[in-house]
Records
---
Amino acid sequence: MIQLPYIEPVFRPPSEARSLILQVTNGCSWNQCTFCEMYTLPQKKFSLKPMDKIEDEIVKVARSGLPVRRVFLADGDAMTLSYRRLKEIMEVIRKHLPNIQRVSSYCLPRNLKNKTVDELATLREMGLNLFYVGCESGDDLVLDRVKKGENFASSLLALQKIKGAGARSSVMILNGMGGHKYSEQHARNSALLMNEAQPEYLATLVVSFPQGIDTYQAGFKGEFEPLDQQGLFQEMYCLLDTLKLEKTIFRSDHASNYLVLKGTLNRDKARLLDTVKQALNQPGTVPLRPEWMRGL
Ligand SMILES: C[S@@+](CC[C@H](N)C(=O)[O-])C[C@H]1O[C@@H](n2cnc3c(N)ncnc32)[C@H](O)[C@@H]1O
Ligand code: SF4
């Protein structure tokens, strides 16, 4: 077992459970989304890790002989690093861990503003080929209320750049994010964003407030009414119904979800819609994750 000097807490997508988590940055440079408390502790103030420290950690892992195949660049928006720095990191990874098959990172749309498709293609050729993009919604009003600092157009541009570079994107959309009032427009516009972007992966999570709802509510000027289970399923139905995807792996299995849904869209759309309809119309006949097993 090797110990890397992580600044805790460290978050990663569920699908990176077996990857080497390489903390090339600490925290999130934006850190303003009203639903996200992941990087709010004092020690998580945004900072870059010096290149020599990153290389020391990679060398340590290489010397351990562990069979590392995948690397996840942490924390919340490692893609804020410049193209030059990311290229340097990829060179060091390839030098010491030549058997790496995939390097991935969270990626805010604005992280790609100053990166060209050619630069992203170079990084992709070096192995950085998967980006987890927290679009959260395709609805501009909802995105504004939660202070995401992005909108439909900026999110689409980033997803198109990723595709143009031959890399893959895994998008996160938050079920329940607009509350009652904006549920339908949130679902519809999120689906329209996905239809235009055609991401390789799409995941939905249920928006949750482990440390209270006050900041979130302030962004909505007091008009946020959280969705109950039925409301969340109704919104999910609208999202799925509006999706027109060619070949996207869809997962709604994160621990925050009550109803687990998995499939490839649009191939499995009818089956997934049937499951949601059953959860809506025949409560108790579809297994749901109990409240005590839910988490972020
Ligand atoms: C660690 S964050 C990093 C994502 C990246 N910074 C971005 O914005 O694209 C990963 C994801 O966790 C999800 N998340 C964060 N806070 C959440 C909350 N309170 N409820 C549900 N999901 C949340 C969001 O989908 C977010 O994009
Ligand atoms: S959701 Fe992403 S961009 Fe927003 S504060 Fe959290 S880590 Fe930062």
---
Amino acid sequence: MRIKEHPILELKHGEKVTFTFEGGKLEGYNDEPIAAALVAAGIKVLSYSKKFKRPRGFFCAIGKCSSCLMNVNGIPNVRTCITRLEEGMVVKRQ
Ligand code: FES
């Protein structure tokens, strides 16, 4: 399931790229949001709530909540719904 339309963001499709998620290799498209590439790969849980460890997925998709915060290239708290995918990125849940 790939997200193709967004009410606010312009979703561009670049060339196919490879990135790492939790140690495994996945494919996505350059310049699409990281979270969109993960959802397209069937990964719906992007993070867990701090207090109760409940799963969190794509929610606002415009960078206004904290549902998609992940560690990207060693940097914590990256909003993956508005951060564009690049070749070789290393993405982890935090
Ligand atoms: S889904 Fe809300 S900030 Fe990313």
---
Amino acid sequence: MLELFGHPFSSYTQKVLIALWADDTPFEYRLLESDHQENAAILKQHSPFGLFPLLLDGGQPVIESTPIIEHLQAHHRGRNMWIPEGELGRRVRLLDRFFDLHVMGNMQVPVIDKLRPDGANDPFGVQRARERLHTAYDWLEGQIGEPYAVGDTFTLADCAAAPSLFYADWVEVIGDQRPKLKAYRSRFLAHPAVSRAVEEGRPYRHYFPLGAPDRD
Ligand SMILES: N[C@@H](CCC(=O)N[C@@H](CS)C(=O)NCC(=O)O)C(=O)O
């Protein structure tokens, strides 16, 4: 029995949900919401910083979205090969790291800064993160595949790309100057598993600290 602890508006939860849904893998979705304190208590037992998602597989915890998807591939293999063998797999890992560290990571800086108490803001850090998002977009424009991140195969790289670029574009617009990346973002929004993640997160858009744009 697989149990996923997460929230529909959380980018890293969506990354794992996309893999589970694309494979039609059965699991129990345990929402981290105020009316489910029992789920938060279990998360605390296994995740040192209380970060989610958390997967329990027969009660055994797996934390961190990428190892969770690796675990799914190893023990609950579906139709998708999330990390292929060889050179393609190494490229998938590179892009997965890039989306998590440089897109998601920089996107989160202005978002989290908005939640800081008065007097604890970091305008220098926010400006730097916003500039770095543009550097990340420029690099990706030369790297991104078609139709998927690494070409013909839907992989872990797309699971990471979808939520990170989805939200990053709300913080700093990708823009017409990166036509390949912009088209890739539009393409993945039409993927059934990604579109489901976006729709299930839609009722929570008022949670977005910078204000969600009226699109997507
Ligand atoms: N590296 C982690 C990041 C997880 C993460 O940052 N999750 C966010 C939700 S998208 C979270 O738990 N935020 C709650 C908090 O920071 O207290 C992963 O890949 O799972």
---
Amino acid sequence: MTTGAGIDWPAWLRRWDAQQAGYVPDREARFTAMLDVLDQLLPSSFIAIDLGCGPGSISQRLLARFPAAQAIAVDTDPVMLALGQGALGTVDGRLRWVDADLASPGWTHAVGASRVDAVLSSTALHWLPAEALSRLYRDLAQLLPPGGVFLNADHLPYGPLNVSASA
Ligand SMILES: C[S@@+](CC[C@H](N)C(=O)[O-])C[C@H]1O[C@@H](n2cnc3c(N)ncnc32)[C@H](O)[C@@H]1O
């Protein structure tokens, strides 16, 4: 299928997934495990944030598996956002794309939701400096109610030398 501007966005999304699976061979199984957790812990209707969504690989799978769910996909890379929007659109109004820098204190305002049921992320949060990551965790504690779910599929190589005294 060729879509807007003659670009085959779904094909680019498939290429993205294939490329990422080269780095993370168990990527698909990991996504499935994350969604299995949501299946166990949340009601059928819920709102999830996909942090550092890239072109929306988590959101795509989540919305396909949970037809009553909604997702908010957050990233700051215009190419990733364009690719995701081109390939997935809004999934019948259930997927909202947000351009926000997770390292900025204002990212939750850009998201425009005061409460969500789940936050998912994969291979994105390791990009944040320690201070920004600490602030983000505190923000998530405000966004998630008791019983909310945060799942981060990533490797965070922070040692003692990377963590400032104020973090
Ligand atoms: C390796 S990709 C992973 C994308 C997607 N989660 C996946 O698994 O396919 C990392 C993503 O994190 C995003 N990212 C990195 N730093 C960010 C920041 N400060 N704010 C928002 N997104 C960020 C990048 O733009 C990129 O899309």
